[in-house]
Amino acid sequence: MEDKYEITQDVKGQLRFLEDLEKLERKRHDEQEREMLIKAAKSRSKSEDPEQAKLKAKAKEVSSVFLHYVITNCQVHLQVMIVFFFADAKSCNGRITAKRS
Questions:
Q1: How far apart (Å, rounded) are the C-alpha atoms in residues 28 and 42?
Q2: CB-based burial of residue 68 (10 Å sphere; 0-12 exposed, 13-18 middle, 19+ buried)?
């Protein structure tokens, strides 16, 4: 064994050390995250004017309406495809087989 390490049987002390180490790491991580959020908030407040905020809100609204339109149309197309699939399956009288590659 090297002189850097010391063999010990103090399990409670080792656990306490690891818990303290974990607390410090968690605290450091939380502090970094907090600083990052503060920087992002400052950056947003500097660059965002009221007109830009209105444009962003309008873009979100338009995007939401478009997404609703797409989802609604996809649902309708899917329902039509299901109807045709089952109509086709019935006309085959159960003779549907899987393609083999």
A1: 21
A2: exposed
pTM here?
0.37
CA distance 76 to 73: 5
Cα angle vertex 24, ends 22, 25, to 5°? Answer: 65
Residue 7: what residue type? I
Q: How far is CA 20 from the centre of its chain?
A: 31
- Is residue 89 classed as helix, strand or coil in its secondary structure? helix
Q: Computed over its alpha carbons, how large is the radius of gyration of the chain?
A: 31
The rounded distance, in Å, linking the Cα atoms of 45 and 49 is 8
What are the mean pLDDT values of the chain's consecutive 10-residue runs (101 residues total)? 71 86 92 87 70 80 81 77 68 55 50
